[in-house]
Amino acid sequence: MAESTTTPAAETPGSTDGIDALGAKIDKLSDALAGFVTAMTPAPAATESAPAEPVAEATPAAPEVTETEDQRIARLVSEGVAAALPKAIQEHVETTGGPSRKGLVASVTETDGTAPATPGLPEGAPAKPLHEYTQDEWRQHIAPIVTGAVFKGRGEAE
Question: Is residue 105 within 8 Å of residue 124, measured between CB atoms?
Answer without folding.
Answer: no
